[in-house]
């Protein structure tokens, strides 16, 4: 049985992003890929923002256990999510492929 992470109340979503964001940061730092990841995230962010804003606006999903703070029409947690997810993916990718090939992406 999974433990109930709702113990953080309205900060639950934010708390999970801090945990996974920290892991992503460590992975990117380990792979020396912080700058490369930042460039990629900056390019992806506007696409992710429009997609997220639209799906929330039309009611595809609702977010429970969040702070209630909105920025530019979407929850602040979603802005963080749009940074953490690609950072985590890139961090894993660079640790699997960037280091093993002998190149340190910058």
UniProtKB/TrEMBL annotation:
InterPro entries: Lycopene_cyclase_dom. The chain crosses the membrane at residues 12-29, 41-63. This is Lycopene cyclase domain-containing protein. Pfam families: Lycopene_cyc (PF18916). One of its GO terms (biological process) is carotenoid biosynthetic process. One of its GO terms (molecular function) is intramolecular lyase activity. It comes from Haloarcula amylolytica JCM 13557. NCBIfam families: CarR_dom_SF.
């Amino acid at each position: 049985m999974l433990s109930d992470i709702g113990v953080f109340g309205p900060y639950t979503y934010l708390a999970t992003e801090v945990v996974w964001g920290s892991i992503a940061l460590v992975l990117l730092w380990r792979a020396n890929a912080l700058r490369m990841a930042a460039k990629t995230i900056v390019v992806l962010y506007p696409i992710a923002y429009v997609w997220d804003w639209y799906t929330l606006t039309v009611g595809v999903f609702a977010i429970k256990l969040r702070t209630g703070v909105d920025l530019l029409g979407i929850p602040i947690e979603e802005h963080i999510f749009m940074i953490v997810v690609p950072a985590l993916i890139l961090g894993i990718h660079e640790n699997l492929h960037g280091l093993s090939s002998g190149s340190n992406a910058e």
